[in-house]
Design goal:
The chain is mostly helical. The protein has a domain at about 45-105. About 55% of the residues lie in helices and about 0% in strands. The longest helix is centred in the C-terminal third of the chain and has 36 residues, at about 70-105. The termini are far apart.
């Protein structure tokens, strides 16, 4: 009997190919360019700092023996960054919810 990993590796490509046929072949436009300008919706800009905040990487870990002070500093920076990213994510979610609430069809 084949291992589950090998079975999954054999089944997944076939599943992906068969599901790909279900995708609509013509892309749906995000905006109807033929619609009059007065009925087009202009969405508010997302919070400007969110993208930069979420792209920040984990604090650099030196490639050497670390002292206790190094470990405390790295963990402290990681905690601060985690809290900042959580706040950015929450601002992004609030923006998404506001756009959905104000502009989505009921």
């Amino acid at each position: 009997m084949r291992s589950p990993t090998i079975r999954a590796a054999l089944i997944l490509p076939f599943l992906a190919i068969s599901l790909a046929a279900c995708v609509h072949s013509e892309p749906v436009p995000a905006l109807d360019v033929s619609a009059p300008a007065e009925i087009r919706v202009i969405l508010p800009e997302p919070p400007s700092d969110v993208a930069a905040c979420l792209k920040r990487s984990f604090p650099e870990i030196p490639d050497r023996a670390l002292s206790t002070a190094d470990v405390v500093r790295i963990i402290g920076r990681a905690k601060i960054q985690d809290r900042a990213k959580t706040a950015c994510g929450l601002r992004a979610l609030a923006w998404i919810e506001a756009v959905h609430r104000d502009f989505a069809k009921p």
